[in-house]
Every structure is written in C-alpha cells, then in structure tokens.
Amino acid sequence: MRFTIDGSVLSLVPKLKIGIVLLTDVNNKGKSTKIHHLLEEISELIKLNFSPAELAEHPMISPWRTVYYHFGSKPTKYKCSVEAMIRRILRGHPIPRKNKLVDICNYLILKHLIPMGCYDLDKIKGNITLTTAKGNERFIPIHTAAAETPEPGEVIYRDDEKVLCRKWNWRDSNETAVTEQTKRAVFFIDALPPVKEEKLKTVCKDLRELAALFCKAKSKIFIADKTKPEIFLKP
To answer: How far does CA 189 lie from the centroid of its chain?
Structure first.
C-alpha cells in the first residue's frame, strides 16, 4: 500500500509533515479505565488552560483556520479536530468513549494539540492519498449510512474508492471506522508549522507506546513531507 501527499496539497502547505503510524496485531477489544482516566485528566487541563474567546488565536489552532479558509471552507463553520474537541469540552460535554484505539487517538489529540485520525487498514481499498477533492468522490459520514460528496477543492484523505476524511481532519468516514474488531490500523498525524519534525516524532512514539501497552500492537512509523511525498506502508 502506498501513501501520497498530492502536489495540490503541498502547493497549499509546502511545510506540511504527516506522521504515519501503522499498527498490526492489534487487540482492540474491551474497554480500558486507564485510558478513560487519561481522557478525564487531559479534559480537566483543557478546561483550566483554554477559553472559547481566545481559542481561535491559539498558535496550534490558528494555522488550521488559515488553511481551511484557503481551501474554501469557513473555519467558523468547519473546525479541525483539535478545535472541535476543545470546544466540546469547554461546553461541558465529555469526549465520547469509543474503543481503545479511538480513545488513545482522542487523548493524544488533546495532549499534543495536533490533529490525527485513525482508520481500519483492512477496510481501505488500494492506496491512500491526501489530495484536493474533485467533488464527485463518495463519502459516508461517521455514524450514518447516507452518502454525500465533498466540495470541489477541499482537502481530503481518500483511497482508490472513497473518502476517508473530509476537509482534511474534520469528519471521518463510517466505512473505515476503527472498531473493537480492528486488527490493523493506520494513523495519520497532521503537522503544520509551528510543529517541527522532532515534535511530530514524539507524538508518533507516544502513539506507538500507548498502542503497545493497551492493545499489544506492533507498529511502524513513517514521515511524509515535500522531500518524501510518497511512502510505501509495509507492516
């Protein structure tokens, strides 16, 4: 399987780096109170350190608002996963507990303030590309069965058949969702400046350690950017 950052995205964000963590031999069954405790702890820290009025100007969030604006999606309406989760917490709503891998993903998003998504590798067809949409691709939003199409020009993760995530890291697909039955998964960690490669590698290693601890998973880490926009994902 190949992952590619398309030139249309690199022309928009030339300093983009994508961390990729490939997990195999995953045991994602059952719940973990320890992961739930980590989510509760980080949620309390979010409440102490963020306010809704200042959130849009935060240095880890404002770059995403700028990028969303440039690919034609209003950042006041569509928010990257970091901002959306923080605003949910500040409104007094807990982050839903899904399964171990998704809970780990949500915890690390909040801990590092970096968007990431996770997908069941066995539900992906062909290769994966981060690209701009033509507007005729198939997308079924999470927790629904009704298909829709992305807007032309918005940034999407897609495989050879369908969209995995709309508006870069705004909404995931129901078709590739990680469940308790997931045995292999791929995580994409989206890093814009001011995030540097050293920080991105730290996030990838955190993910590797938590997935091994709670899911007994084996892992491989890759970094894609303009110097290496194509990565062969070999377990």
So the answer is: 6
Which residues make Cβ contacts (< 8 Å) with residue 188, sequence separation at least 6?
18, 19, 20, 116, 117, 119, 130, 157
CA-to-CA dists, residue 51 to 29, 56, 115, angstroms: 36, 10, 19
Query: Residues near 53 by Cβ (< 8 Å), separated by ≥ 6?
Result: none
pTM: 0.96
Q: What's the rounded Cα separation, in Å, for the pair 147 and 123?
A: 17
Per-residue pLDDT tens over the stretch 110-149? 999 999 999 999 999 999 999 999 999 999 999 888 899 9
Cβ(121)–Cβ(186) below 8 Å: yes
Instruction: State the alpha helices, DSSP H only, in the chain.
Output: 7-12, 33-49, 62-70, 81-90, 100-112, 197-215
Please report, in angstroms and rounded to a whole number, the separation of the first and last CA atoms in the chain: 10
